[in-house]
Amino acid sequence: MKKLAGLVMCGSIVWCSSVTGAEAPSLEIGKRLFNTEKLGTSGKSCATCHTNLNKLASVAAYDEDELVTIINQCIAGPLKGVTLDSRSADMKSLVLYLKSLKTK
After folding, report:
1. What is the fold, at CATH topology level, of the domain defined by 24-103?
2. Of 73, 93, 95, 70, nearest to 82 (Cα)?
3. How far apart are CA 71 and CA 46, in angstroms?
4. pLDDT tens digits, residue range 31-47?
5. DSSP letter assigned to residue 82
C-alpha cells in the first residue's frame, strides 16, 4: 500500500510539472526573453533599447531585488507589458542573463 501511495504521489508531481510547463531558470531562457517582443504589446524587446550589451555589464553588480525592479519597470513602461513575479522562472532567467553580461 505504501508503494502504491508513493507511486501515485510521484506521478502526480510529474504530471503537475508537465502541465504547468515550469522550466528551471536558465541563461538561454533569459537571453530568449531579452530578445523577444512577447514581454509586452509595444512591438519592442529589451534588446530594442539595450543594443550595446557591453554597457549593460555594469548591472551585474546590482543585487537581484534591484534588477527585478528595473526589469519590471521596463516591461511595464516601454514594453507595455505585465510585470513578472520576482520568483518566476522567467524573471530569474532574465536576472541570470543580465548578470552573465559581466563576463562577456
Report:
1. Cytochrome Bc1 Complex; Chain D, domain 2 (1.10.760)
2. 73
3. 9
4. 999 999 999 999 999 99
5. P
Three-class SS of residue 15? helix
What confidence tier does 14 reach under pLDDT thresholds 50, 70, 90? very low
Looking at residue 42, its pLDDT comes to 97
C-alpha 8/C-alpha 82 separation (Å) is 36
Rounded distance, CA 80 to CA 60, Å?
24
Q: For residue 77, what is its C-alpha cell?
A: 513602461
pLDDT in tens, 42-83: 999 999 999 999 889 999 899 999 999 999 999 999 999 999
Q: Where are the domains of the chain?
A: 24-103
Task: Provide the H-helix boundaries in the chain.
Answer: 2-20, 27-35, 46-49, 53-56, 64-76, 89-100
